[in-house]
Amino acid sequence: MPSYFFKSALLGRDWAENVRLHVKGGRISMIETGASPELAETVYGPVLPAMANVHSHAFQRMVAGLTEYYTMGTSDFWTWRTLMYQAARLMTPAALKDIAAGLYLEMLKAGYGSVAEFHYLHHSHLDHAAEMSDAIFAAAAETGISLLHMPVLYEASDFGGAAPTDGQRPFLHSATEFAGFLHHVAGKQTAQAKVGLAFHSLRAVKPDSFEPTIAVMDALSPGAPVHIHVAEQLREVEASLKYSGKRPVEWMLDHLPIDARWCLIHATHVTEAEWKGMIDRGAIAGLCPTTEANLGDGLFPAFDYLNAGGRFAIGSDSHVSVDPREELRLLEYGQRLFRRERTVLAPRTGGHTGERLWARAAAGGAAALGIDGGEIEVGKRADLIVLDGDAPALAGPRYGQVADAFVFRGAPIGITHVMRAGDWLISEGRHKREDEIMGRFRATLERLAALLELED
Hints:
Helices cover about 35% and strands about 20% of the residues. The chain has helices at about 75-90, 95-110, 130-145, 175-185, 210-220, 235-245, 250-255, 270-280, 290-295, 300-305, 325-340, 355-370, 400-410, 435-450; strands at about 5-10, 15-25, 25-30, 40, 45-50, 50-55, 110-120, 145-155, 195, 195-200, 225-230, 260-265, 285, 310-315, 385, 415-420, 425. The chain is α/β, with parallel strands linked by helices. The longest helix has 18 residues, at about 95-110. Strands 6, 7, 8, 9, 10, 11, 12, 13 and 14 form a 9-stranded parallel sheet that branches. A 4-stranded mixed sheet has the order 3-2-1-4, with no helix packed on it. The protein is globular and about 65 Å long.
């Protein structure tokens, strides 16, 4: 039974020094504090639970940084979406594998140990749906990241089953086709790569498709996580009110079996009654602050939601950033700007902002991916990150200040090691196949970027 010695670690909600962890079968079997390093592999540096990336569209890493120009007229989520559609049309299974593998390696090095791939780039119109999902599985296997592959049902362009646009053709399935596709994808599951279910949004799924699709998923994998984009844009809220007389989350709470297996991605524009309903049902808010800021979505009411006991997770979504620290920092800073206060999301009874955000996001993210982890505790999955204890930015901080410095100092604090289910995927800051994976990643990005119809 392997054991590992660390100078300090965040154990549950408390810090401890001279920690020896024992791992068996990918789980933490014993924790000793005040221990000695004898008979243990010594890994210097503070240890935190690895973060779960609750929301990823891998192919969109291709356009990150390529859409930051302005032409006359409106510039918003909907104009960005047109450019994203261009990238989708260019993607092939081979290109998607290269991009996803490079992205997942970036995630590991940034502190993510697992990812939920919200996969709607099916290319079913080219009979490539199976191959596109296979590319995601292959990319995750190559890097070792823990994958929750989430095929997405996408039927329509707007509420009421409006006909899809040409740009949406790569995403489409009917509910009947999608049920068959789920059987194929569920057969690909491994210990490292599981399958969940995603609905693109209320506007893209017909109301009578939800429950039959959930029933199909439950027959294949009972209790699998269910994710959905919701209330990201005010235009979506207005369209929902016009169509059904109810706001998006309000409609979901009234018509769908929302419970602890559901993760509501963004949920940006929610009323108090809606976010309280999310808490009552046990749903998790999947927040993606860098993408939400990049697209001008708005601010989730995080202060009230967290203090009322709401669970949340973070995701890098369109991958304008692949750094969980930046997601958490922006989440806090958005609340500071809105409320004109500091340490807004720290515990109201007193405590460390960065520590609270990292711990709660890690636990919420693990739950949203169906992982028994997210905390360094006996019985939990051994998903860990080790910070560079020699980093100048960690000179001085102790205990809760370590996570605060990691999230907020801004100065580089490297991650030297990343463990997923007891296996070191990153050691001394590198992946064993890093040069090969990143070489293909760069070459594919360069080739496809040259084909995009973007402004210089």
